[in-house]
Amino acid sequence: MYAFTYHKAASVADAAAALAKNPDAKVLAGGQSLIATMKLRLAAPAALVDLGGIDELRGIKSDGKNLVIGAMTRHGEVVFSADVEKAIPALAHLAGEIGDRMVRNMGTLGGAIAHSDPAADYPAGVLGLAATIVTNKRKIAADDFFKGLYETALEPGEIITSVSFPIPKRAAYMKFKQPASRFALVGVFVADTGAGVRVAVTGAGPCAYRVPEMETALGAKFSPDSVANVKVPAKGLNSDIHASAEYRAHLVTVMAKRAVAAALG
């Protein structure tokens, strides 16, 4: 690990000011991805701005139409939240599928989506539920947020403060795990929002993405059979030692069928 300076921010404004002073600084949320890459010397930020002491970035609340989760809320808090279980049980299930107990007790919602790991679980939930990412500068629709491999719409110095999830009629998340890391080889989040069906995929491509063909089919009939014959192109999908692009394409259909079945109960 290379040398760096450390600043524990007292507020969002304090964190933003610290980031503005040092263009090479990085935000430290749960640290489950950043610290690991720093240990391997794959990342060498000149400074870390720790958000861990900012209470305004934590918490979960529901107004009956939207579930708002603070950016520094831990995955484990989402898993055991009565508000999440009541409003969007699929999101509690998704959080419980992340990593292991250590990761769930330290990792945060904001950190997970800001990192935009191609195999992370939360991006599928954010995209599948048509969430709104709230930052210290603006609001960003989920469809505009994930741009590519470890790339998002966040600008330098921009800090995620919360994520607002519209409460769907029904939803579910299913994934095929890489057995050692528990990352998604492929994960599919399906949501019937009342305004339409959304199908979001993680693990298969460079970042989370939607499958319009499946959404159209499920909009006509919300049934596993509706997506059974939707063939997902392998071109452009991830291919590595764990799974080929062709296998991932096959898994998208399999996980989508399972997610629809789970959403139907």
Please give the structural blueprint.
Layout: E1 5-8, H1 12-21, E2 25-28, H2 34-39, E3 47-50, E4 60-62, E5 66-70, H3 75-79, H4 82-87, H5 89-96, H6 101-106, H7 109-115, H8 122-128, E6 132-135, E7 139-141, E8 146-148, E9 151-152, E10 160-166, E11 170-177, E12 184-192, E13 197-202, E14 209-210, H9 212-220, H10 224-228, H11 245-264
Parallel strand pairs: 1-3, 2-3
Antiparallel strand pairs: 4-5, 5-10, 6-7, 6-10, 8-9, 11-12, 12-13, 13-14
Measured between the Cα atoms of the first and last residue, the distance is 48 Å
Looking at CATH, the homologous superfamily of one domain is CO dehydrogenase flavoprotein, C-terminal domain
User: Mean pLDDT, as a whole number?
Assistant: 96
Order of strands side by side in the largest beta sheet? 4-5-10-6-7
Assembly state: single chain
Radius of gyration: 18 Å
Outline the structure in words:
The protein is α+β, with helices and mostly antiparallel strands and 265 residues long. It contains eleven helices and 14 strands. The strands form four sheets. It has a five-stranded antiparallel β-sheet. Strand 6 (132-135) and strand 7 (139-141) form a beta hairpin. The longest helix has 20 residues, at 245-264. It is globular, with a radius of gyration of 18 Å. The model has no long low-confidence stretch (mean pLDDT 96).
